């Protein structure tokens, strides 16, 4: 029987020895430390190396212990406690929930958990900026709306104000903003905060959008971004800047364009560009990194062009409620709401807050792999955009279909086509994971593509699977691959089974499934047909069943 004891300490697992009877104060501090991070388990009676040594003889863990923890934490923590016997030794497992705000001990001690350079966890004090950063992660505070201490209106750059107004025009932002004077514009976008005495002080949003560079350097020292170009491990471009955000986006786009060659595709009378990186996806991804980064955490936003991908990373993990499993479908939850709203009204990012769709579309319509967020962790978001060669024939199919429908293809449809290009064959249940929706929605997407002639359905409703349609394989010159994926005609399948049985003396259902690329039900139906027709004889039942040729 496997032991429930984890093999080692992690960010969410803490071992505490009780050989000398750990004090209540130390135990409460360890519990609040876990709660102020990601929650987890505290194992009492276990050494740091994972060896169970047991609870102290005077340790009394009754129902009163849960009340003790609630009484000595603020706000009160509701833990779960159980005692376990591991290898004949009694230990306690204390399950600690993640706190949505900050939790202190009754003595006013705030602690959080972190990993040291060697990967071992430790508890450290929560500094004021840690508490503010945590509050913004949970949507409890908006630091971008707060006035910046020590700043004044002289920290705004008139040239950046002009750039802001030009951006509204060029990016199709809220044109009503263009009719406002500077003071009204500041109020509409939240660039300043009104003080009790009537004066106005720049907010973090204001400094980030129209602040002078010296003011940003002095008052927002965490703001920094870098553009790097790496080719075969050689550094071709590597510069760090602290420009205000609108200037930063212009500078990054200007410096990136020489490294972004494009092909052209003729579709009817029009030329469709196929760049190395779609510029709409480029702009959206970088804007998201600058908007959603944690401005209480040191570290630059990195935009790095590597040999096979454009990698964009920013300090601060995903906010509470957003995971890699719901990134496509969750409601927008910006870490810095005031800044995000201002960038939407200016027109820099998607007004609906669904900018991730723009990023996905910017890769999938060119036949490239989907955006990769797999290196994202609690302290940073890392996005990798493939720069693989564009599939021009696939792009032509997409453009033709969009012209036929007189609308762009839904993002779920593009993800479905990309998934089938990789997985070859999918059911609606399997596709649901790719598009992060339920199987019913996945089936609806597949059937819509089936009607459009872009995918092909196989089998009956209960066991229906889908592949890309012949026109997609033909466009890519992969007709033989289509035949392998779709399988063969019923008569061909029957002949395969009889030939296999002749060569090997017998055949089982699992072998029919592999030989003919059939589902379990389809293989059973084929064997039953051959048996009923007198071509095979069944021996045994259920899983033990096998089939032979009849005696001549």
Question: Would you write up a description of this structure?
Answer:
- With 552 residues, the chain is α+β, with helices and mostly antiparallel strands.
- Helices cover 38% and strands 19% of the residues.
- The protein contains 20 helices and 22 strands.
- The chain has a 5-stranded mixed β-sheet with strand order 12-11-15-16-17, with helices on one face.
- A hairpin with a 2-residue loop joins strand 11 and strand 12.
- Helix 11 packs across helix 13, helix 14 crosses helix 15 and helix 19 crosses helix 20.
- The two termini are 54 Å apart.
The tally of strands reads: 22
**For the report, how would you describe the main beta sheet?**
5 strands, mixed
Low-confidence stretches: 478-486
Structural class: alpha+beta
Q: Please, what is the oligomeric state?
A: single chain
Strand content: 15-25%
Which whole number gives the mean pLDDT? 88
What percent of residues adopt helix (DSSP H or I)? Answer: 25-40%
Cα gyration radius (Å) = 30 Å
Number of helices: 20
Q: End-to-end span in angstroms?
A: 54 Å
Provide the spatial order of strands within the biggest beta sheet.
Answer: 12-11-15-16-17
Name the overall outline: flat
């Amino acid at each position: 029987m496997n032991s429930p004891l984890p093999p080692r300490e992690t960010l969410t697992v803490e071992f505490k020895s009780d050989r000398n009877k750990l004090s209540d104060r130390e135990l409460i501090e360890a519990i609040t430390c876990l709660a102020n991070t990601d929650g987890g388990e505290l194992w009492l009676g276990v050494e740091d190396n994972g060896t169970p040594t047991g609870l102290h003889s005077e340790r009394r863990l009754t129902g009163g212990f849960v009340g003790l923890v609630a009484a000595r934490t603020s706000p009160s923590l509701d833990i779960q406690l159980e005692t376990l016997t591991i290898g004949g030794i009694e230990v306690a497992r204390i399950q600690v929930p993640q706190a949505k705000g900050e939790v202190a001990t009754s003595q006013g001690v705030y602690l959080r958990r972190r990993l040291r350079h060697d990967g071992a966890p430790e508890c450290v004090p929560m500094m004021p900026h840690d508490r503010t950063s945590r509050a913004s992660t949970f949507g409890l505070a908006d630091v971008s709306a707060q006035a910046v201490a020590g700043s004044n209106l002289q920290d705004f750059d008139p040239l950046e104000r002009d750039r802001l107004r030009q951006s509204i025009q060029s990016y199709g932002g809220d044109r009503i903003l263009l009719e406002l004077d500077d003071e009204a514009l500041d109020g509409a976008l939240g660039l300043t905060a009104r003080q009790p005495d009537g004066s106005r002080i720049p907010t973090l949003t204001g400094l980030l959008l129209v602040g002078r560079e010296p003011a940003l350097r002095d008052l927002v020292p965490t703001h920094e971004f870098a553009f790097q170009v790496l080719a075969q491990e050689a550094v071709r471009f590597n510069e760090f800047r602290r420009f205000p955000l609108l200037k930063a986006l212009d500078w990054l786009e200007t410096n990136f364009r020489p490294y972004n060659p494009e092909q052209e595709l003729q579709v009817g009378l029009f030329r469709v560009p196929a760049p190395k990186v779609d510029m709409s996806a480029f702009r959206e991804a970088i804007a998201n990194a600058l908007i959603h980064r944690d401005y209480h955490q040191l570290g630059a936003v990195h935009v790095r062009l590597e040999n096979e991908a454009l990698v964009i990373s920013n300090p601060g993990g995903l906010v509470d409620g957003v995971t890699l499993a719901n990134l496509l479908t969750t409601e927008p939850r910006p870490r810095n709401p005031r800044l995000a709203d201002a960038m939407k009204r200016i027109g820099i990012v998607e007004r609906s807050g669904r900018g991730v769709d723009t990023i996905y579309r910017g890769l999938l319509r060119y036949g490239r792999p989907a955006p990769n967020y797999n290196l994202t962790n609690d302290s940073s978001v890392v996005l990798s955009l493939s720069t693989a060669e564009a599939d021009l024939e696939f792009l032509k199919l997409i453009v033709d279909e969009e012209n036929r429908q007189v609308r762009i293809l839904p993002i779920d449809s593009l993800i479905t086509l990309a998934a089938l290009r990789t997985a070859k064959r999918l059911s609606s249940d399997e596709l649901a994971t790719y598009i992060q929706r339920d199987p019913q929605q996945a089936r609806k997407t597949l059937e819509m593509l089936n009607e459009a002639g872009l995918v092909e359905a196989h089998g009956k409703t209960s066991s229906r699977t889908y592949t890309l349609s012949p026109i997609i394989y033909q466009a890519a010159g992969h007709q033989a691959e289509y035949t392998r994926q779709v399988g063969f005609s019923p008569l061909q399948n029957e002949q395969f089974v009889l030939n296999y049985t002749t060569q090997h003396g017998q055949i089982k259902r699992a072998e029919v499934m592999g030989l003919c690329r059939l589902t379990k039900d389809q293989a059973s139906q084929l064997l039953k047909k051959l048996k009923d027709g007198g071509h095979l004889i069944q021996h045994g039942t259920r899983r033990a069943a096998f089939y032979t040729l009849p005696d001549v």
